Amino acid sequence: MTTNQQRGTADIGVTGLAVMGANLARNFARNGYTVALHNRSRARTDQLVAEHGHEGTFVATESLEELVASLAVPRRVLIMVKAGQPVDDVIDQLIPLLEAGDIVIDAGNSHYEDTRRREAALAQQGLHFVGVGVSGGEEGALNGPAIMPGGPEKSYEALGPMLEKISAHHDGEPCCAWVGTDGAGHYVKMVHNGIEYADMQVIGEAYDLLRRVGGIEPAEQAEIFTAWNQTDLASYLIEITAEVLAQKDEATGGPLVDVIVDEAGQKGTGRWTAISGLDVGAPVAAIAESVFARSLSSQPHVREVARRTLAAGIESVEAPQPADREEFVEDVRQALFASKLVAYAQGMDMLAAAAQEYGWSLDLGTIASLWRDGCIIRADLLDVIMKAFGGRDTDRHPEPGTRAEGQPVNLLFAPEFSQAIAEALPAWRRVVATAVTAGVPVPVFSSALAYYDGLRADRLPAALVQGQRDYFGAHTYRRTDRDGSFHTLWSADRSEVEA
Ligand SMILES: NC(=O)c1ccc[n+]([C@@H]2O[C@H](COP(=O)([O-])OP(=O)(O)OC[C@H]3O[C@@H](n4cnc5c(N)ncnc54)[C@H](OP(=O)(O)O)[C@@H]3O)[C@@H](O)[C@H]2O)c1
C-alpha cells in the first residue's frame, strides 16, 4: 500500500453502479452526502448523473484512482459489484490507493467466509474492511434498506452514522446497527435470507392447501391473504402475496399465478444458510426444506417422468363443505403462523451457534430490530421477537456463544410464543394430517412440526441410533443412570464394558 496524499471532500465513494449500487448512491446523495461515483464501464456513471444528478451532489469519476482522490479522510469506498471474484478484483485495485484507517465496504451479497478472509487481509494493511448485509432489493436500496454491518467496531464510528441515515427506520429507530466483527454482517444477512426462503415457502404451502384442498381460487385467496395481513401474520410477504394472487394475466384473462412456470429460482443465500446450519450444528430444517423445495421444483424433466411413472396412489380429498371451509382456512392460517415462528426460531438459534463458532458477539434482540423494516421479511412479528430477546440495545454485546441475560435459549420458549404455538397446535396437526392424506406436499409445515415435537419429546430415538453406532462402530454411548461412556461387546458375549 502506498500512501495517497490526495484529499478530496466527497463523503463516500461508490464503485459498481448497477441497480443496487446506483440506488444506494442516490440514497446517500438524497440524504445530503456528497457521493463520488465509479463504475468499471463509464456508461453507468454517466447514466446515473444524467438521470438523477439533480437529486444531490455527485462527483463522477473515470477511474478508481480518481474516485479515491475525491474522498475525504478517512476514505469510505463502498463496493457494489457482482459478488465473488469481482469483489476481490476491485479490492486488489483499491489497496494501493488507500492509506491506513480508510474503510472499504462490501455491501453486496458476499459469502461470510470471503468477508472473514478479506477483513483479515485488509487489517494487515491497516485498512478497515466492512462486510455489510443489505436487504430490501432495489426499492429498499433507494428508499431505506435494512442494513447489517459487520467489520471492526471502530470503523462504525466513521461509517455507522451514514448507514443509519440511509437505512429504513422503525418507530424512529434506524434498521441499522453494528452486529459484530469480520463476517458477522454478511452472516446475519445470509440468515435473514434463509428465513425469507422459509417464510415464502410456508406461504406457498398455505396457498397450495387452500387451493387444492379448500378449492379456493387465487382471486378469493387474495382477499383471504389481505385479511390475514390484519392478523399476527401481518408482513410485507403476506401483503405482496395478496397482490400476486389478485393479478390477472392479460393474455389469458386467468390468474397470473397460473401461467407462471412453477420452478423457483435461487441465487444461493438460502443454500448457504442451510450449509452453514449443518456446519455449526444448528437444526435449521425448515430453512433447508425450503431450499430443497425450490430445488425439487427446478427439476422439470424428473417431475415430468414422475408424473407419469408415480401416478398411482395420489389420493384426492373432497373439498371441505362451506361450513367447514371457514374452519379450514383458519386452520391453515394458524399452521402458517406456527411454521413461520419455527423458521424464525431456527434462524435465531443458528445465529447463536455461529456466534460461538466464529467468536461473534451477536445480540439477537438488536438483530431482530433491524429486520422490522426495509427488508423482505419485515413483519409485525419481528417487533414481538425483538421484545422476546430483551428489545433493541445496540450497546449490549453478549459473550460469543452466549445469550444476553434474560434472553430465551430458544425463541419458542418466550412465554408469548410458547403460548401462541400451543394454541395453534391442534390446527397445525390437522393441516399437516390433511395435507399428507391429500398428497399435497408441505415440507416446511411438516418439518417445522417435527422440529417442535422433537424439541419437547421426553425421549428421542437418538437412543437407538447411539446403540446402532455402538454396534457397528464401537462409538460408545452414555447411560441414563450413571456417568461415563459405555460399549457393549456386540460380537462377543454382549456384556457391557466401560469405555
Ligand atoms: N439485485 C438485488 O435486489 C440485490 C439485493 C441485495 C443485494 N444484492 C447484491 O448487490 C450486489 C450488486 O448487485 P446488482 O444487482 O446491483 O449488480 P450485479 O448485476 O450483481 O453486478 C453488476 C455490477 O458489477 C460490476 N462488475 C462485474 N464484474 C466486475 C469486475 N470484475 N470488476 C469491476 N466491476 C465489476 C459491473 O460493472 P459493469 O457495468 O462494468 O459491467 C456492474 O456495475 C451483488 O452482490 C448482489 O448479490 C442485490
TrEMBL record:
SMART domains per record: 6PGD
Residue numbers binding NADP(+): G16, L17, A18, V19, M20, G21, N39, R40, S41, V81, K82, A83, N109
Key words, A-Z: Gluconate utilization, NADP, Oxidoreductase, Pentose shunt
GO biological process: D-gluconate metabolic process; pentose-phosphate shunt
UniProt GO MF annotations: NADP binding; phosphogluconate dehydrogenase (decarboxylating) activity
EC number annotated for this UniProt entry: 1.1.1.44
Pathway as given in its UniProt record: Carbohydrate degradation; pentose phosphate pathway; D-ribulose 5-phosphate from D-glucose 6-phosphate (oxidative stage): step 3/3
Annotated SUPFAM superfamilies: 6-phosphogluconate dehydrogenase C-terminal domain-like (SSF48179), NAD(P)-binding Rossmann-fold domains (SSF51735)
Domain named 6-phosphogluconate dehydrogenase C-terminal: residues: 185-491
InterPro entries the UniProt entry points to: 6-PGluconate_DH-like_C_sf, 6PGD_dom2, 6PGDH_C, 6PGDH_Gnd/GntZ, 6PGDH_NADP-bd, 6PGdom_BS, NAD(P)-bd_dom_sf, Pgluconate_DH
Binding site for substrate: N109, S135, G136, G137, H192, N193, Y197, K267, R294, R469, H475
Active site per database record: K189 (proton acceptor), E196 (proton donor)
Enzyme class: oxidoreductase
Protein origin, superkingdom: Bacteria
Catalysed reactions listed for this entry: 6-phospho-D-gluconate + NADP(+) = D-ribulose 5-phosphate + CO2 + NADPH
Entries under Pfam families matching the protein: 6PGD, NAD_binding_2
Family: Belongs to the 6-phosphogluconate dehydrogenase family.
Cited function: Catalyzes the oxidative decarboxylation of 6-phosphogluconate to ribulose 5-phosphate and CO(2), with concomitant reduction of NADP to NADPH.
Assembly behavior: Homodimer.
NCBIfam families: gnd, PRK09287.1
Protein name per its UniProtKB record: 6-phosphogluconate dehydrogenase, decarboxylating
Organism, as annotated: Micrococcus cohnii
